Amino acid sequence: MTVTQDLFPSLDANAPPLRRLLRLRPDVLVAADGDDVELTHPWGRQRVHALGAATVARLALLSEQDTDADQLTEGPDAGRLLRLLERFPFLVTTVLADRDGDALATAVPIARSATLPADAPPDVPAHTPVVLSRFAYLRRLPEQNTGACVVESPLASYRVTLHQPSAGAFVAALTSLRTVAQAAAVAGLPVAAGEALAGLLAGTGFLETAAGADQATDPALWDFHDLLFHSRSRAGRHDYPSGGIFAHPDQPQLPAVPGAGPREDGPGVDLPVPDWAQVVYRDPSFSEVLEGRRSVRSYGDQPVTVDQLGELLYRAARVRRVIPGDPESPTAYDIVDRPYPAGGSTGELEVYLSVADCEGLEPGVYRYDAAAHRLQPRHWSGAADEAAFRELLTAAWRATNCTVEPQVLITVTSRFGRLSWKYSQIAYALTLKHVGVLYQTLYLVATAMGLGPCGLGSGDTDAAARALGLDWTSESSVGEFLIGSRPDGPAAVGRGFADVVAESREAVN
Q: Nitroreductase domain: from which residue to which, for each copy (predicted)?
């Protein structure tokens, strides 16, 4: 007995053809009103008039049980019902099942753009070479769906649930170009079942033909992870609950302001609080600062000072106030007010300093306590911690094209749980938006102060976790920013608007 025969005994070579079953998505509500019907679903609500009582009844039945696709072509109202399903294909699931109704695979529409014909896609002939889309991925479902997995893709408007291991093996076999018959043999599926499953996968956007490795539809400039992240963190390309849905009420909230962390024994460094009147008197105008903002990759002879760092952090990143949530509400949480805007005011971003050269501070790693306006040293517990600190500084130096030895590296981290406790699907996208506004705030304040700011485009997650003493799955680096003294010369502020408006208009005209 071969391994595949041992793994997949449920479908033998003599199994009859698979049934194609149709059903409305489980979250579609069918409300009958005489000859009319109202359909309520995740993408809205439609009222369809003058269907006829028989069609309304059959449609209601489709919301309760699977129906063989062939049966929908029978009866005097068959044409009307099929036209209705073709009008709303994004509400119709397609199931491949054996004669007893045991499912092999289910295609569920996850976007309103789903266009699979309601009467199911045709089989792909056994001799046809096909390959899995490079954007497709396979993952297991939670434990309550033991044995099942799903294949998804940011390019597909369907999610296909694979109910049997043989179906998952068939998908895995198509990671290289094979005929349908060859993939079915690898998976231990009858050829007819392979043809039907390939038809379902092709019709829902997961397979490419040999001629295609379909370059016409492959977005060549996208990496897999970028396209997936984009499609899943915005509405329109998936049906997962999204936004502030408070999906984790059983998990404790993270504190609004974190307490002392690892390797923080000993006193902190209280930073001076800037004087409002002096700051307002000294600062250039907003327009001068905005037009003068530049990334600075060279420093002055004297390093930045601890007083300057203190003012920068106070003006850009401190906690201004914490507004307690209602303890009686299961969805209430403490609001964190900071100088930069943030979705939900969750205050998940934290700031760490890797100090190489700063007047008034010893070299090393510090956590900025944004509520107390204090630096908490994170002492090295051994040579490995110090080596990770050096790795961070070296990575920052490389990120500037090896043009400047860092004076102070600001590492921005995210305590992800502060966001994901409330927000689903969009939590990581939100934290990156927050990093962007913090970057701009640091740029503007540093420019106004006459410092040398430079946001970096990348960083080392693993080195940061080791250097800062963090569990990267709970709190991880999401941004890096260099601060140093500005070289001697005129103040870096704008003295007028710089643009290409006139030149662009002349080119058009």
A: 291-477
Is residue 365 within 8 Å of 378, Cβ to Cβ? yes
DSSP run (H or E) holding 308: helix 306-317
> What is d(CA 407, CA 246) in angstroms, rounded to the nearest whole number?
41
1-6+98-240 and 19-97 in the same fold: yes
Nearest Cα residue to 403 out of 297, 302, 300: 297
In CATH terms, the fold of domain 245-347+368-382+413-485 is NADH Oxidase (3.40.109)
* CATH code matching the domain that covers 1-6+98-240, chosen among 3.30.1370, 3.90.930, 2.60.120, 3.40.1350: 3.90.930
- Measure the CA–CA gap between 110 and 242, rounded to whole angstroms: 13
Residue 422, both tokens: 């409330």
Q: What residue segments make up the domains of the chain, in order of their start?
A: 1-6+98-240, 19-97, 245-347+368-382+413-485
> In this structure, what token pair is assigned to residue 303?
């390093």
Comparing CA positions, the residue from 163, 56, 38 lying closest to residue 108 is 163
Beta bridge partners of 423: 244
Which SS3 state, helix, strand or coil, does residue 69 take? helix
Closest among 274, 280, 283, 433 to 346, alpha carbons compared: 433
d(CA 508, CA 499): 16
Local structure of 354: helix, strand or coil = strand
User: Residue 75: left if φ>0, alpha if ψ -120 to 50, beta else—which one?
Assistant: left
Could you tell me the fold of the domain covering 19-97? Outer Surface Protein A; domain 3 (3.90.930)
pTM: 0.87
Beta strands in 340-397 (DSSP E): 349-355, 364-369, 374-377
Q: Distance between alpha carbon 329 and the CA centroid of its chain, in Å?
A: 28
pLDDT in tens, 54-112: 888 889 999 999 988 888 777 777 778 888 888 899 999 999 999 888 999 999 999 99
135 and 228 in contact (C-beta within 8 Å)?
A: yes
